[in-house]
Design goal:
This protein is of the alpha+beta class and 256 residues long. It has one domain: NADH Oxidase (3-Layer(aba) Sandwich), CATH 3.40.109.10. The protein has eleven helices and nine strands. The strands form two sheets. The protein has a seven-stranded antiparallel beta sheet, with helices on both faces. The radius of gyration is 19 Å and the shape is globular.
């Protein structure tokens, strides 16, 4: 490569991380799975007393409301930052949630097949929502419970649009969305099988989740803009996660 295109050696640690193979990265004798430890639960427990809100059936909502075949959705897919003041319906929200983390089949306590691929079917993510305009829901913070097909209402907050935009470094279009998707990682789920390599495959899995949201939204006549520029501490505080055993890794604003 020409000298002018070479980067300083300080960047090489990240390159090696991307190039390394799981076999070289992991001492499998140290993983929880190898040691016979039980796998972490595939869904974070809900605190007692949390209000649970039923969702319309996700797969049927997606099939019923989709306006485009998948090929056309791929052709049209782009990041959209201009949102109208229209709300999502419960069916539209359910369709989008199912597209990103919906459960297709539970194979056992350690494994479930979902609407997106995941390394070893470990699915390290939890999906949170800053609901701004969704019919029948108060503005606030919610968590998707894919194994129950429900939303857990965590906090009512009329100012959640402003808080979400601030947590995304002041990007104004976030506050104009109908809902903002936040994905947190629970690394222990992936570390149980992959040890130190878990962090590489968690990053790969985030891409699957984001692209499914883009395509489902495009098919529904909605738009999405994925976000990787955010204030880590502010996002974790917004969602009420500890920032260590669970923390924000990816965000997407969605709206009409």
């Amino acid at each position: 490569m020409e000298e002018s295109f070479k980067n300083p050696d300080g960047f090489r640690t990240g390159r090696f991380f991307l190039k390394d193979t799981i076999r070289r990265m992991v001492d499998f004798s140290r993983t929880g799975q190898h040691r016979g430890a039980p796998p972490p639960p595939l869904q974070k427990p809900v605190p007692a007393g949390t209000e649970l809100i039923p969702l319309p059936d996700g797969p049927s909502s997606l099939a019923r409301l989709a306006r485009l075949p998948v090929g056309e959705a791929i052709i049209r897919r782009e990041s959209r930052r201009g949102f109208s003041p229209r709300s999502f319906s419960p069916g539209e929200l359910s369709a989008l949630l199912w597209a990103v983390q919906g459960v297709r089949e539970v194979l056992g306590p350690a494994t479930a097949l979902r609407s997106v691929p995941s390394a070893g079917a470990r699915h390290a993510f939890e999906t949170y929502l800053a609901v701004i305009r969704v019919e029948g829901l108060n503005p606030g913070v919610y968590r998707y419970l894919p194994f129950d097909e429900r939303l857990a209402r965590l906090e009512d907050d009329a100012g959640v649009a402003r808080r979400a935009a601030r947590a995304c470094l002041g990007q104004g279009f976030v506050a104009a969305a109908a809902a903002v998707f936040f994905w947190t990682a629970v690394p222990a789920r992936m570390e149980w099988r992959y040890g130190e390599a878990a962090h590489k495959v968690i990053a790969l899995d985030a891409g699957h989740v984001g692209q499914n949201l883009y395509l489902a939204a495009e098919a529904l006549g909605a738009g999405v803009c994925a976000i990787a520029a955010y204030d880590q501490d502010a996002c974790d505080r917004l969602l009420g996660v500890d920032g260590e055993e669970e923390f924000t890794v990816y965000i997407a604003a969605a709206g009409k």
